[in-house]
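quick one before i forget lol
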Amino acid sequence: YPIVWGQIAKGVSGFLNGNFEYMKYDFKIEKSFNIKNLGKPSFQILFGYIAGNLPYTGLYAGRANFIEYGGLNNFQISAANNFETMRFNEFLSNQYAALFFSHNFGRLLFKANHFQPDIVLVNNITWGSLNNKSFHFNIPIKTLEKGYFESGILLNNIIKSNVIGIGAGVFYRYGPYTFPDVKDNLAVKLTIGYVL
């Protein structure tokens, strides 16, 4: 069965120094399963909604996992169920939906004597909107009404010991929010995992 998670939060103005009156609803469902001779697909679906007006820091910022160091994409660590090509605080929403899908082929597609990486295909998608955009003065805000899309391929466990596996992956951002320069849409990541 899938794992289902939910949370409801209530903000009360004036109670315990609270400044904002709002309701926040978060929902997540995830599942992984094995398909004989095809590998292991996994998905995570998320929904979030905020009723009420919150400042920038209280809204959804997109589950980003890309840090720019002086305009360069240095090797960074990949994190499952995050947007690997999305910059931190690049988008803002008070309601969103996201789908993270991956398919781990394991060693089904490639086998060599000492080189047996796990091959994983990844697709991530999200949509969102912001109802109170006009409340945020002098802050450049981008929203996700057109949909954000990225895909990637990971080679996990290229180097492995009895405890840890290290690999690499590359992700590409496409769709309405791509950058004009192709290299800005790419993200190269390291992967680190436990070997069981």
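fyi The CA atoms of residues 61 and 89 lie 5 Å apart.
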